[in-house]
Amino acid sequence: MTPKTAGLAKPSQGEPDGAGTTPAAPIQAETAPHAPDRAETGQAASDQAKAAHVDRLLAAAVAAGVFPGCVLVWGRPVQGFSQMACAGTRGLTRGRIPVEPSLLYDLASLTKILSTTSLLMRAVDQGLAALSTRLGALDWPLPPDLSQLTLLDLLTHQSGLPSWRPYHQNPELREPARLKAAILSERPLFRPQQMTLYSDLNFLLLGLFLTEVFGVDLATLFRREVADTLGLRRLGFCPAGDDIAPAEDGPRLGGPLSWPAAPVLGPTPLGRPHDDNAAFLGGAAGHAGLFGSAAEIWRVVVDWAAAEAEDAGRLVRQDTLRDFLKIRTPAEGPGRGAGFDIGLGPLLEARGHLAYTGCSLWWSPETDQAFALLCNRVHPTARGSRMEAFRRELAELLWRG
């Protein structure tokens, strides 16, 4: 399928995202008409050339089997300029329908920044938490070696907790108190802040923390604090309907490919998170479970950018956001802010995250650049993906100029 590229206007609160496509064109804020100067003309030509290159790159990725299809949105959020492109089909073995801009994708670990980190920033702004909050100050069943852990240690993956556990294999752990106790009983692999080890367990705990301090479940909390605040209708947990890209077909492993005890499970139903621990917890967890469309993710980025640049965001105050964006880990290790990963290579200094399903989100406040890629590289199977090389090529293209 030939990719479709379109300008992305800011939709109104009642407008469905991604409706219609038009030839690639920059979207500028409304101003009085004026003759474009040489710099504006040069920028417009550069944007058009980049859009054409994006179309070719996405088409080549689909043809090479990197993913069945995708939606990409990129631009300069503070300036109010963005473009969108989509390519391929929803799936190969099922859902052989051309991708439309409004298609929902399983965002997997983008949940960590779009939901959990956003909600923690809201909690800080509302006086319900601080990055320095110690788990030992909570009424939690903590062993002595975890009592000094802080929310920041969890957000930066410096807790020492193991990277993953198959909690979905124990039905008793659906109960939040039992799950919390199971995570806190894990033997730390190193002392807090000694090193960095990416761990879903950190964000499972953060999700449990959020439900306690706000007093509602995560799906309701995200809808109330984030989606409703920004007027979003297609970004959230537990989506209904069939306008969703399929994930992995069966048989498949029920956990990371490196985990030897992962059971073989069947195809992932539409709307069920590909992550089995998130699905086990009802579809909403601190580490995974969120689904969304590119246009609505872009609106979150635009709000972050407004907060960072002018303290004009609706989700978070400028000082809180900047505190979360600050690099917190040693220079020799993986760069991490509070919840946000720090990019490498062409994305150096950008903030964002990657997702196991293939999605990615990166934003640079310094250069006013951002992009979100939504795809389902785990369909029909998670094996043999070429995502790493594609991600690098895409970042080099979008961050150029």
What features would you describe in this structure?
The protein is α+β, with helices and mostly antiparallel strands and 401 residues long. It has a single domain, classed as Beta-lactamase, CATH 3.40.710.10. 31% of the residues lie in helices and 12% in strands. It contains ten helices and twelve strands. The strands form three sheets. The chain has a seven-stranded antiparallel sheet, sandwiched between helices. It has a three-stranded antiparallel sheet with strand order 4-8-5. Strand 10 (351-354) and strand 11 (360-364) form a beta hairpin. Helix 8 crosses helix 9 (318-325). The longest helix has 26 residues, at 38-63. It is globular and about 60 Å long. The chain starts with a strand and ends with a helix. The model is unreliable at 7-34 (pLDDT under 50).
Task: Give the topology.
Layout: E1 4-7, H1 38-63, E2 69-76, E3 81-88, E4 105-106, H2 111-125, H3 151-155, H4 176-184, H5 200-214, H6 218-230, E5 236-237, E6 252-253, E7 264-265, H7 276-280, E8 290-292, H8 294-310, H9 318-325, E9 341-342, E10 351-354, E11 360-364, E12 369-375, H10 387-398
Antiparallel strand pairs: 1-3, 2-3, 2-12, 4-8, 5-8, 6-7, 9-10, 10-11, 11-12
- Could you state the order of secondary-structure elements as H and E? EHEEEHHHHHEEEHEHHEEEEH
Structural class by sheet pairing and helices: alpha+beta
Total domain count: 1
Strand order of the largest sheet: 1-3-2-12-11-10-9
Please, what is the CATH homologous superfamily? DD-peptidase/beta-lactamase superfamily
Give the terminus-to-terminus CA distance.
28 Å
Strand proportion: 5-15%
The CATH architecture comes to: 3-Layer(aba) Sandwich
What is the typical, i.e. mean, pLDDT? 88
Helix count from the secondary structure assignment: 10
In the predicted model, the low-confidence regions spanning at least 5 consecutive residues are 7-34
Radius of gyration: 21 Å
CATH top level assignment: Alpha Beta
Please count the beta strands (DSSP E, at least 2 residues each).
12
Helix content: 25-40%
Largest sheet: 7 strands, antiparallel
Overall geometry: globular
